[in-house]
Amino acid sequence: MRAAFATLLLLTVLALPLLARPALAEQGAVLDAPEIKRLEPGGHACAITFDDGPGKYTPALLDLLKERGIHATFFVLGEHVQKAADTVRRIAAEGHEIDNHSYDHPLLRHLTEAQQKQEMDKTELALKALGVIPHFFRPPYGSYDSGTVRAAAEDNLVLALWSVDSLDWKYRTVKGIEAQVLPKGQVEPRGIFLFHDIHRTTVRAMPDVLEKLAQAGCRFVTLAEWLAEER
Questions:
Q1: H/E element holding 164?
Q2: 74, β-bridge pairs
Q3: What is the domain range of residue 69?
Q4: Is residue 101 among the annotated active site residues?
Q5: What is the pLDDT of residues 24-43, one digit of tens each?
Q6: 183 versus 36: which is more confidently predicted?
Q7: Which of 51, 52, 99, 197 is catalytic?
Q8: 199 classed as catalytic
């Protein structure tokens, strides 16, 4: 069962035509916290993801990631893609993954399925205009319903959440963020980590956060790499 779910997600990511889109929605290609834990690859793989950008602090973050040789996954908003096309191009050129986070960050469960699909499609078009093809969709606030899953499947997107939340929108200090993401006791770091590159405090905290995660055993990968690893 575990291997079957991983295969389903991988095939969805690769957008293979052999799988019917309605079937994907019915089978529920959703990478939520329980599935992340169940599918956890070995070797303490840590997928670092950033939501809500690109923003004015994203270039500084990209400088840091480049210096450290780390590739991350950016869940971008369509409205920001159109305003910061050069940053999006840089993200892609430097080997990071870029995925869909809706157009303007609504609470999707308050929208109809057609409206949810429009949120995804507008961002999809903005990204494709820059040569970027997303493979994952992360709903704003992590809030979604069956219509969200169906709409994502129609665009060959895997709905992907996270397993480690930095709460960096709430805790605006290095110490506060580290308290959320660094392992406690003998537990080693792993999973899919959520940060936001729109916060200056987050970008300023990342050198220390990444250093301590690496010291604790993190092996940094992108989301697609995390999913593709042997289990």
A1: strand 164-165
A2: 50, 98
A3: 2-228
A4: no
A5: 333 457 999 999 988 887 67
A6: 36
A7: 51
A8: no
